[in-house]
């Protein structure tokens, strides 16, 4: 307390503080500006580093995505070629035989066709002579009439013979023509099959063309290809995650089916760590089943998680297939047995509890209980095989997880980058604000200083007008006067900096 | 790979330390058969049955009577350590219940009440079984009445033992002077807690789920 009055003492302290602050204004403003610039630069550099990391990760993610897409396309194209090869081997592989059959059939048809040529009946050659005789001769002459009648009879007979011959030949022709029909149908069927095979190949070739176009885009690394692959990967990731969640639900049900009866096998009181041995044993059985399912799918070349299995000879893979299937069936049978045992144990436990409660009749002894027992056994047998198929979504999940994690990391880096930049700008603007607040605190000395400067400037102006010949002296930097307008605007501070 | 090996070795070495603590539960129940308290024995049967339903394979359970000289194996009515296998454990529970039922049907009142001897026998039984969790149920009015010559005024060690007094009925004299009842409870509580045990009283037998509260 400088005086007895609190107000007076406070005023004196305020005046002293403002004086000190006014005197230390320039260094204080510079310190604030330097600190803000330093923090801003540090944050900007950190943001730049994050941006570089993000770009690096983005490039790597892009490479990974393109590599995965390339591999997938290669598999698809390879599969399409396999299908074409199968079609060619099945349908077009017998083309020489088909061609020979067609040629032979056509030859036979041609022969038959030749044989069915319509031969007109022979016209009697002497009808004009007979007509001449009939015109020239006297028809009333009996001898001539006899001759003519004889000729007429002969011609009648010749005509009947010719007609009969013609009918026979027509009948032969019809027989030959009717024999041609099945051959035509045979040719038609063969050609239709050929057409279907060729259509199938054409369809496959169009599919291959499409895949090849996409493959070329992937090889070229176009943005469109990356975008398509990224979208596809995200969708596949979501779907596979959903299916895996469903499979986990199945595994949990499977676990509950066998955990209780497992205590009968390994004991209910032993523990491994914090977990019951019976529970661990049940879990191990389920995990072994899933592993066998994975190996089975690998052996069938449905999935390709293990390149070693895919590279095995076909015979070895077939053995492996049978082996894993046998183990799976055995484990499924064991599970069915355990599920049956579970039901028995449950009934025993319920009976004991009822007895201890004094409610011996409280246990349900319905004849329909076999339904639940059978259902449990069925589930115990089927679930291991159903879990086998988890290998397919698992493969997709593993393949897409890398891309999704990469995208998540990129997003995180991007957000961090943005946050750092915002923080840098915030600190920079905060320094300007603090400088202004500083000036607000010492507004009184600043106002006085401005007045003094203005007055001095006006007096110097009047002096310069009085001595027009006097040379103008540029103020040195050390003695530079600060214009009032710039003082008010915070001259020399960080506030002038462009934000 | 190295990290995986390290984890496996840590787990393996972790298993080579001290033997794991038992997770089993050991329950010893003392039944007061002195005087008029014999009439309450049906309630004890209810508690025994509830306890049997709560016990798991590997747990131990014994029911003993409190009579003139309770520090004796002869006073154990039924005892069992339930088998690892749930089915066998269920069979044991049924046999246990049969044994207790037979006892309840043939029990005769004893002349004196040696609660301390029964507790000593219970501690000995539980020490022998060495379960992870030890509980002693005392189904009694807690009025100790020793025959002349029996020495029981020595401290008992109840370290790690839950002692639960059940159905502590009020005697006629308690009604005349309730302080007797409160003093009796306080005396037993002090004796148990001084021995390192935890003391609880449950008189409401409709809420038996509190029996195994920790």
Most extensive interface, chain pair and sizes: A-B, 20 and 20 residues
Cα radius of gyration of chain B in angstroms? 20 Å
Number of helices of chain A: 13
- Please tally the β strands of chain A and state the result: 2
Helix content of chain B: 25-40%
SSE order of chain B, as H and E?
Answer: HEHEEHHEEHHE
Kindly report the spatial arrangement of strands forming the biggest sheet of chain B: 3-2-1-4-5-6
Order of helices and strands of chain A: HHHHHHEEHHHHHHH
Shape of chain A: elongated
* Termini Cα gap of chain B: 43 Å
Strand percentage of chain B lies at 15-25%
Radius of gyration of chain A, CA atoms, in whole angstroms: 53 Å
Nearest-integer average pLDDT of chain A: 83
User: Which residues of chain A form runs of ≥5 with pLDDT under 50?
Assistant: 470-499
Keywords:
heterodimer, A: 499 residues, mainly alpha, two-stranded antiparallel ribbon, 13 helices, 2 strands, elongated, disordered C terminus, B: 214 residues, alpha/beta, 6 helices, 40% helix
Structure write-up:
- The complex is a heterodimer of chains A (499) and B (214).
- Chain A is mainly α and 499 residues long.
- Helices cover 82% and strands 1% of the residues of chain A.
- Chain A has helices spanning 6-23, 25-90, 95-115, 127-136, 142-220, 223-266, 277-299, 307-310, 314-357, 369-388, 391-441, 443-466, 484-488; strands at residues 271-272, 275-276.
- A two-stranded antiparallel ribbon of chain A has the order 1-2.
- Chain A is elongated, with a radius of gyration of 53 Å.
- Chain B has a six-stranded mixed β-sheet with strand order 3-2-1-4-5-6, with helices on both faces.
- In chain B, α2 packs antiparallel against α3 (86-106).
- Chain B is globular and about 50 Å long.
- The mean pLDDT of chain B is 85.
- Classes of the chains: A mainly alpha (499), B alpha/beta (214).
- The A-B interface holds A 260, 263-264, 267-271, 273, 344-345, 348-349, 351-353, 355-358 and B 11, 20, 23-24, 49-50, 52-53, 56-58, 84-87, 89-90, 93-94, 97.
